[in-house]
Batch of 4 targets.
Target 1
Amino acid sequence: MNILFMTAHPLLPQMVGGLQRSSAQLAEGLMARGHQVFFLGALMPDGWIGKRDRLLLKLTRKPAVKDHAGGLPTYRGWHPWDAVGHVCRKERIDLCVVLAMQPVKMAQQAQRHDIPVVMMLQDVEYHQHGGDFARLGPVPCVANSRFTADRFRKDFALDPIVIYPMVDGAKYRTETTRENVTFINPHPKKGLDLALDLARNCPDIPFAFVEGWPLTPEDKASLMERLAPLPNVTLHPTAQDMRDVYGKAKLVLAPSQWEEAFGRIGLEPQFSGIPVIATRIGGFPESVGEGGVLLDRTADSGEWTAALRRLWDDDAFYEEKKAAALAHCAQPCFAISHQLDQWERVITQAAQGSLQAEKVNG
């Protein structure tokens, strides 16, 4: 089957985030099972990919151009929704899997070309749907957590299938020197202010801040200014191989202030037995589970500091959470073979037009 994963977000390697990593892992798994997978996303103008594809867009006058810069065949364009028909025709697409960011706008284009769609529900940011989700009709949906499924069930009367994001433990599992507290993606929505408070409150603990979402020059300058008085914090560039990051982490900090639909960062470190301190919000209770510590969104920096210090200083408690982390990520619901079996059933039935009928009649 020829499958198109599409989003209005930039894709690997121009943007490195949970959506990009999870969809790439799924695509690799489906390709290993004999499917052909393509991606369609937004082009960022910077870097060599941006310069190359900008030139090709201008020369070819096509709505999107193809490259393999992220290791997978990927089409990029300024307005990816305008390129859906072009890509579907060129690659003879049988099914579109619609990712987050402008999903309604993207899915409607596929529907106009009579291509079956599966909506991959990855957030609850309805204002970024690019239209009224209800107007898509009874489309099959896969949610990345029970939290996401419950929200769409309540707001749109849908009944999504829950398949957790794919995290290949082999790509994250590593020995760690346990020398720092790691904070991924220093962005206000991800809890930057709280992370800075913790670094100030614990000057004896080394912190590693690792870039995630692209920062504008202004945002980068502001961040560097805020980090300047904190000698125990080092800022690292985006990592393509997260083992380079987790190889030094004793614990991972995820004080997110927005509703993480799943919170992939809550699961990745656990393959190395690294506990996570996260906000009890969105899907974090599912991704973190017992493999860390969850704090209420209303918890102040004193409560966060106490939780961090206990994991950092109390060896017995740390070993307890380390064991819980390893057990949590070993559950069958996170096993890639099981997840691929689920996805193959979904895409096969969706392409045949039987998935939604079965759900409605069942």
Target 2
Amino acid sequence: MAASLSEWIPRMLKFLSNLINLNAALATRIRSSQAFDEALAFYDAEDYKAALPLMREASELGNPRAMSLLGTMYLMGQGVREDGAQAERWLKQAIAEGFDDAASVLGMAYATGKAGVKIDLDKAIPMLTEAADNGDEQSARMLGMIERGEGMFKKLKRAKRSR
């Protein structure tokens, strides 16, 4: 039995609405990817000031790799003044969006206090351990330094011995 016109119109309107929403989502994803690619070209050329607005745009459009690099830029002061709060925000968001490589950077920030991030080894060590287990050599080296009490972690070793 054929649907009446009064039944068909709402279905068609819902279909068109879904199609428009899908188109908008795809356009956002495409622009995010384009902005990230452009930002990455500037970033690789060490033109951080030119990379920053594009990296921010790609991040705000939901690109987790861009979020991770934007967090790194804030952490390292690349094209922007160091800002630990912004670095932590974007790195956490990248991790939440499934970009696990950001955990290494955030773990190092928690271990070192770079850019004013509060030192928190209880957060740093699990992040660095997971990154090291996934093959990140820099995280493995930092874990070794923490365990051996080398470099900036000498005070940590002395504090443990005095307990």
Target 3
Amino acid sequence: MAVYSGDYNGLRAARARTTFYIVSAAIVIGIVVVAGYFFLRHRASSQEIPPLPQPPIAEQSQPATPSAVPSGVEGQNVAAPAAVTPAAPAPTVVSEPNQAVEQFIAQAMALVNQQGGGSKVIEARDRLNEILPMAGGQQRAFVKEQLAALADKWLFSKGVYPEDKLCSSYKVNPGDLLASIGKQHNVPYEILMQINNIDKPELLQAGATIKVINGPFNVRVYRSTFTMDLYLQNTFVKSFPVGLGKTGMETPRGRWRVKADGKLVKPIWTDPVSGRTYHPEDTDYPLGSRWIALDGLEGEAVGKKGFAIHGTKDPEQIGTPGSQGCIRLHNGDAVTVYNLMMPGVSLVDVVD
């Protein structure tokens, strides 16, 4: 019995020591873990943490500039809003061509290059003309160039395309005059002479079939680009460079109409500034080859007198502000426009 009791007590002591060691080890491990946690947390809080990247702010439709001072009762001071520091300028963005316009242009050019059938010329013209208001920049310049090239085929030639609603054939009746035929179609007789190769109006022959144009022609003048765009009804024909009014005598914006008796070839003219009267035979005659007087109808044009489209003795001033308000053309272009604009009918819009 003594031997058994001693062995039992020794076993209990060994178990107690083992338990003590296990508990002690757990306590030590726990202390290390807790100490490590607080150490890492303190270290992290002491370091600078970079902010998270923010999503880009959507571009506003209006620039971030100070709003206008609110209007108040007359004589009452109204505090202006605080000044806002302007943002740095945005990088220059090169506008991409309008892909839809590119596709339409490609379709129209396929018609231009297609062989066989005059109707393709007219279809191409009409498609390009529909595209023109949507086009901008180089696209617009290209479309205008193509329309001008097509005009040599369908307009400034003797041929008539069957599907063309702007030009048609006319059989001359006995007693018809070229001027009366032109008036009937809202175009001057001069352009009918040109496209039908008629040297003189009196050479028109009864029974002959001639080409006629269904007018009128109108023009739009852009002051910012010194450009005149010519239209037959609403179809673009071609552009001309122009000279316009100098500083203090700017060409008035608005709508004008060609005077009923306003088309003249080298008329006698008195300079309203100097008072000098010029005659066509004068070596420094300033009006060039043609004069197209204008009546003001709308905008700044209302009530203005003495304004006209005319040629020039100074072709180097085309494309610059150098006139007393008139619209100057190269002399050859002045003859072309003179032959197209119908007195009392054709309109001239001057815009910025």
Target 4
Amino acid sequence: MKACVATGKLGQIECRDVPEPSLEAGTLLLKTKCALICGSDIEYLQGLHGEIVSNEIRGHEFVAEVTAVGDGVRDWEVGDRAVPISYTSNYGCWADYFISKPVGVQKVPEQVSDEDAVFVEPLHTGFGSAEACDLKPGEAVCVIGTGKIGLLAIMSTKIMGASPIIAVDIEQSRLDKALEMGADFALNANEVDVVAEVKALTPSAIGHPAGFGPEAIVICVRQGQVLNQALEMGMQGARIIVAGFVPKTEIDPELLVLKQLTLSGVLAGRFGENRNNGARALRILANKQMSPRALITETMHFPDIQEAIDSTIRGENLAVLLRP
């Protein structure tokens, strides 16, 4: 079978012939229908997560078809479509076939297309970050970073009734996409004073006489300075949600106290009883409350994996749909 494997060299990956995995008891043999590229996979190939393992197959955002059911597996049949529960491991879905335990996947409803369902894994975080904002209809939210996760957060806050929704980025094409996906305003951080502009777009609401700013800020980038911007722009009592892996940075904790801000992080959704946001994500897609397929900017195949990744790094593609 064909698979996209790391070469062991920095930033390099290629499509090769590899042995087909063997079905074992208690597992499912899955055939990849389509997949996406996660920023963590790119960072792995860039050597940011330790040693690059030669011949490792990457990928954990996918829609796959069950082609064989191992002994002891219940409630799954050949032909069922599967998506990941959450980013619990590297599934290795950039391959014609891969193995998963049933606990790691969930069924796709018939009415959900492959092109929408492939976004379920990143939607764990996009929807989860919006949920963590505890938004009420009419409350303002600022989403900093309009990559895949940020755009999914924007779409999620939209169906939760947030208003206005303000998107912040430095790539104009992504800001344009944010407006298309439901943002009310899009600010280029290279061109404006973001803190001042966000405050100007969110006048003080009744019950918040202390000043201006959004009730919630979602951080979907990996730049440390945005954390301080969030502390400055948030209104009294604002909730700040960190969905991106912000590096170590200095902040002014006095602002947390004086403005009574809440600062928290999410990973594949907010921790607790609602950990599996994937189930609700699938309901949202099945009920046509959002359609993430609009985020797909190009379709490529496994032999094009290097260009798919490079074009994403260059900012030319937002979400490449990979097919075998």
